[in-house]
Amino acid sequence: MDGLQILNANKIRPSGLRIKILEYILSHKTHPTIDEIYAELLKDNPTLSKTTVYNTTRILAENHLIKTITIDGQQVRYDGNVAFHGHFRCKNCGRIYDFNVNHVPEEAELKDFLIENMDVYYVGSCKNCNENL
Amino acid sequence: MDGLQILNANKIRPSGLRIKILEYILSHKTHPTIDEIYAELLKDNPTLSKTTVYNTTRILAENHLIKTITIDGQQVRYDGNVAFHGHFRCKNCGRIYDFNVNHVPEEAELKDFLIENMDVYYVGSCKNCNENL
DNA sequence: CAATTATATTGTAATCATTACAAAGTTATA
DNA sequence: TATAACTTTGTAATGATTACAATATAATTG
Which residue among B86, B115, B122 places its CB closest to the CB of A122? Predict the structure, then answer.
């Protein structure tokens, strides 16, 4: 399913920019920031405004087509993989890695709480950086 | 162990403000923001500067005496409980709840990764708010 | 098709948490 | 006491995000 179909299925008017922004996030596993998305799409869309990237990612996130990652204290990042998984941020190279979380804690303390979103964020030094120190 | 002893044990010069800020965070389970700490301590310290609260919390966090919580996309919060546990933020009332995380995922994908910090953030609607809707 | 309305995009200005930095105050040390 | 080191303060700068009004584009109606 491509961006056009996804947007239509979610009743979001599929403008050219929306399709491109959604498809960029879906096809890049790098958890890009607003600036990264903007810089990349600017190449083919010279009049693109950063505000449009902000607006569009907000709409996509509100509709659960992408996920907002706040592991970086500075900038929000976006993830096209909305299935539950953890994120590891390397303090050294800045890369964000995905990992599976097998055991989702069933917390008795949260009985009768409505959980809408779960984030698991690890921070440290990645294998690649550890080996090259 | 009070703030003075903790600071001494960690070789942080125990100024009056540092003791007060540390003790405030240790004794309040509300995960206060900078503004909340500042507003509260200002009552007894009329010349207190917000910069001091920022500086001090940074020092305390660097020394792992308190933990930085970034579950709120807007403001950082601080937690005096540095033992591993999860945080639940209620979108309704804004309260942050602690909960135990029994099963820390052992992720084969992170083999040879050095994990320095783990955060588990849930967001949703708390029991209290659910009952009063 | 033309006119009108609704929506998308843009650019600039505002907001707000945080940081940088220099000056002033305080404590420790010689 | 004098000097150096550190703490605290206040103001200015930074930078991500949002607000908002103007413009452009697309959909709808007559």
Answer: B115
pLDDT of B105 higher than 70: no
Q: Say whether both A73 and A100 belong to one domain.
A: no
Which 3 state secondary structure label does DSSP give B42? Answer: helix
d(CA B48, CA B39): 9
A-chain residue closest to B110, CA distance: A99
Shared-domain flag, residues B49 and B89? no
Q: Is the pTM of this model over 0.85?
A: yes
- CA dist list (Å): B128 to B40, B95, B124: 26, 10, 12
Quick one: A20 and A64 in the same domain?
A: yes
Please indicate, yes or no, whether residues A36 and A55 belong to a single structural domain of this protein.
yes
Q: What are the CA-CA distances from residue A50 to residues A38, A47, A67 (Å)?
A: 6, 10, 19
Round to a whole number and report the distance in Å from the CA of A34 to the C1' of C8.
19
Q: Look at chain A and report how many structural domains it folds into.
A: 2
**Residues of chain A with confidence (pLDDT) below 70:** 103-106
Q: Which domain holds residue B52?
A: 3-78
| Closest residue (Cα, C1') to C21 | B51
Give the CATH number, domain containing residue A13. Answer: 1.10.10.10
**Residue A111 amino acid letter:** K
B65 pLDDT more than 80: yes
